[in-house]
Every structure is written in structure tokens, then in C-alpha cells.
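Input record (Table S2, row 384):
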Amino acid sequence: MYLKITIGLIIFSFALPYLYDREQVIESFFRNAPDKLKKFSTFKEYEVKFADRLRNCEDALLDEAMGLAILSCDVGRDKWNTVMGNFHKEVPSGALYIYDYSNPDLSDDEALKRLTLADFPSGDTDFHPLGIEYYMPTSTLYVVNHARTGSTIEIFRLSVSSFTATHVRTLRHPLVHTPNSIAAISDMEIYFTNDHYFPVRKSPLLAKAETFLAVPGGSVVHIDLTTDSARSVAHIPFANGIAVLNETTLAVSSSSKPGIYIYAMTKQRDLVLQKVVRVPSLVDNISVDENGKLLIAGHPHVPSFLTVSGSRALCNSEKQKESESEVCKVRAPSWVGEWTEDAGLTELYQGLEYETSSTAIRDAKRGVGIVTGLYAKGIMVWKE
Ligand SMILES: *[C@@H]1O[C@H](CO)[C@@H](O)[C@H](O)[C@H]1NC(C)=O
Ligand SMILES: *[C@@H]1O[C@H](CO)[C@@H](O)[C@H](O)[C@H]1NC(C)=O
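Output record (2-acetamido-2-deoxy-beta-D-glucopyranose complex):
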């Protein structure tokens, strides 16, 4: 009897932090419902741009020296999402864009250009970009491609002046499994995240269970591109964004925990967990600005996010009648925050003007920031 109670207590005490986490997530289902959501913004101004030209941009990154942003957008995501589990047959391809945010003299038309993919074997027909990473010293652009034929990491050489990304090679590897985000740490070395152990493509139910129970099935993989030798260096529930904070520190976001894992990188490229920063939203992607501040984008209300994710194929389709249905009126709020060791977490924005925020980036010198939205039209651009 005592033994049973003791064992029960031991199990309970181990589960406690876990239950507390789950409780926080579930509590946000009520607190952050779109009609109750507390809206705030610390930005001087913000607007949604290119709503008629861009849709479903997941990732963005900056070349501050040139005043350019590179955007990864996939109109096909409504129907093809290997993370959320939407698999339709006819799917349009996604594209990469360059946005010149620093030159106010350009018209909107001139400021946003689609990148041409040169020498890319599957052409533009099977391109579903998610996370992207740019290693400036070698002009190397890494793109997670959730292709229908299997997920890969595509490596391109970027020429900004000719708006062309020339394909160098495709990285396929057993550890490129459910790739999500990439962080380059030298010219031939990257870390990337796999979001799940069970790919939604193969085991939809197990993948869902993995997400909702926050099982640490996601991973961080280090790969040396001279030899393609790769190994898993950390396991995290729903590992999502990854960003280098400084020479010795790496940040990885967990979308089911929800929070940010801060790791020290050893010389051997192992990761040693330093701390977990809790975030009041379900964290999507993270980025680091020039001042070393970590920018975080997330989804404050998971149920609306899941509804939007599941219904876009219908709501963006020609079938006018169906798109007037209730499900198409659901709005999924956005949230942006920042974190530093000294100041801790600061919330910057929460609202409904722009939906499904997935990445936030900032040019600290120019005081310009960009938010992308997984299922949103256009991008949100803010000024500080
Ligand atoms: C998230 O952002 C980082 C840094 O900006 C980038 O390297 C990564 O590929 C992004 N991932 C996704 C899935 O957007
Ligand atoms: C890197 O960032 C971490 C976390 O903010 C901090 O503790 C550490 O001191 C920083 N290291 C350097 C070399 O700036």
C-alpha cells in the first residue's frame, strides 16, 4: 500500500512540471481566444504590405548591409503542409523573394522581386520552402524544401544583383527527416531542426500525439557539409526555429513546450542545455538581431491556428459559397516578443491585424522589422 502510494507520488512529482506546462497551454486556449485576446503593440507604426502578391510566408532573413530581406513563401501550403498534415494532390509551388525594405523611393512593384531558381533539377514544380538560412561570407542560401518526393535541404548560391539563386546541390540524409529550420555556423557547417520523430506524412496519428503530449521527438542535428557526416546533438519536443545567439550560444524554439532552449555550443559542436525560457505563446520561429536580441514569433491561440491551418485550402478556393462558411471567419492572432539574458522577455505585439505570425526579424540600425505569417496574406512591416 505504502509502496503504491510512494510510487504514485514519485510518478506524480515527475509528471508535475509536465502537467504544469500542459495546463499553461490549455489555459491559453481560453485566455487568448480571439474575442478575449489582449491586443497591444510597442511599435511606432506597422502595416501589412504586399497582401495581393505574397501569401503563406514562413521565413524571412535580412541582409542588413544591403538593406534586403529574403522571404520564403509557399502558396501551396494551404494544400501541402508536411508539418500540420495537409496533403492534397494538385499543389502549386512556392517561391523565394527579395524585398528591398531600405529604399523608400522604390515603388512596391520594384521593391519586391521573385528569385529565379537556376539549375534546380525539379524546376519550379516541386518547391515547398520552409526554413531558410543565408551564410553571407559565401553567399550560400540554405532552403528546407518539403518536396512531395521527400524533404531535403537545398543549397544555392545567391546573386542578389541578378535576383538568382543557382542550385549547388541537394542534401538528402537519413537525419534530414522532418527538417524545419537551419542555422549556419561556418561555411561548411550547419545545425538544423527536425520537428518530429514521427513524420506526419507517414504516421499522422503518432505525430499528433507527439505534438500534443510534448514528447521530445524533435531533434537538433549538426552536419559537416565537407563529408556530410551528421549526428543528433539534442532532443526537444517539436523543435522549430534555431538561431545562433553569439559565438558560443545557440537558441532553439519548441512549439509544444512552449519555450526557448538556450544551449552552449562546445568546440566539438555538442550542445549543453543552459536554460529554458518560457514564452506565453506557442513559439514558432526565432531570429537574432545585430544587438544580439532574440526575436520570437508565435501563435497565442492554438485552436484558431489549427482551424486556420486546416481550412485554408477550402477558404482560398474558388468555391465562393463554402468560403463564406463559419470556419473561414476564424482569425488566428499573432504575437511577437524579444528576449535577452539581462532584460528577460519583453512582449512587443499581439493582435489580429496580421495572422499566424511565424517569424520576426529586425534591422536594429534602421529600426525596421518584418513579421511573416504561415497562412497570412502579405508581410507585416513595423517601424520603431
Ligand atoms: C527561422 O529563422 C531562422 C533565423 O532567422 C532561420 O535560419 C530558419 O531557417 C527559420 N526557420 C523557419 C522554419 O522559418
Ligand atoms: C552569449 O549569450 C549568452 C546568453 O544570452 C550569454 O550568457 C553569454 O554570456 C554570451 N556570450 C558572449 C561571448 O557574448
